[in-house]
Amino acid sequence: MNPYVTSGSHVVHYNDAAMETGLRNRVAIVAASSQGIGRATAEAFAAEGCRLAICARNREALNAVAEKIRSQRKTEVLAEPFDVTDAGAVRDFVNAVVQKFGSADICVTNAGGPPAKGFLATTIDEWKRAVDVNFMSTVYFAHQVIPYMQKNNWGRIITITSITTKQPVADLVYSNAVRAAVVGLVKSLANEFGKDGILVNNVGPGFTATDRLKELAHARSAGLGKTEKEIFDGWAADTALKRLGEPRELADTIVWLASERASYITGQTILVDGGLYDFENFFPFDDLHGIFFFVEELRDQGAAEAVAVVFVAVDLDTVFQSLIRSTDGMDRGGYFHGGGDQDFDEIDGAFADGVDAIEDEAAGGSVDQIDDVVKLR
Known about the structure:
Blueprint: E1 27-30, H1 36-47, E2 51-56, H2 59-73, E3 77-81, H3 87-101, E4 106-109, H4 124-152, E5 155-160, H5 173-193, E6 198-205, H6 211-224, H7 228-238, H8 247-258, E7 269-272, H9 279-282, H10 288-300, H11 304-314, H12 316-326, H13 344-362, H14 371-374
Parallel strand pairs: 1-2, 1-4, 2-3, 4-5, 5-6, 6-7
Helix pairs in contact: 1-8, 3-4, 4-5, 6-7, 11-13, 12-13
């Protein structure tokens, strides 16, 4: 039983049944693969018959992983120790991969997470290091592998980030900020290179049983005056499954995204978090009606500052524009009371004026200025 699964009664019954992935003989690059999720991912690709290229900073640990995979899976493995923040080293590694195997079909970018800190405890040097390790390393790999993938009109780039791309985690300000940049890059690459048969996706782990999680638990326990076991138990209790994730569960998601079974998925972030992320609690509105109802209630209570915060936080102009696009050609009157006969440009203009009024409210304007927005409900 995994020592991180602290709830006692929850045992992971793993299904080893094979699924045809279409990955046999593909060449898979997996970064930071000497331990944790990276190692599990390398082993999972080997199990699918891929030829492997793995890297990490620790030569001894990396070679041990390579030897184990060679002996268990009888597959070719290229293992090179280097730091993924070194653009030249990444270039040389990818060139060596293509020279040895003839292609670079799959690239999984991965790197150790930045230290756990609140904002005021951060340093400029650590910010630069976090950007280099967790963002620029992905840029370096993408620059090198995409031309080879274009030649074959087939490729997969999969980044490993964190649940922090969807929901910030306390004391992980470096990760909360930098990982989000990776998601922006993923979306951009997916849009630009989809025409070349290259799929680009991101996987966001939740609390997963790795050495990294041990480090976070140690830091959190020191700050909160709790035992590490209490920290682990709390993390497990926050998930829908009431346990922590296994690296292999992340690895299987990555293999699936690389496979032919996921051939119409690109530009996405897939959370593998056991149900930890709860969008309804993070953003408790089902639609625009719910938002306006909430705003009207706040207005009636005179909660001007809260109204302003709600509108600024959720970027309602974006929400409204999305609603216009999604209802184009439909019975628009069903979305707004009496809205069916209104010109949508007029509604949009009134809405923009209302948002401006709410922003003015934060600077001391009148609560009644939001009436035009509320009338759209």
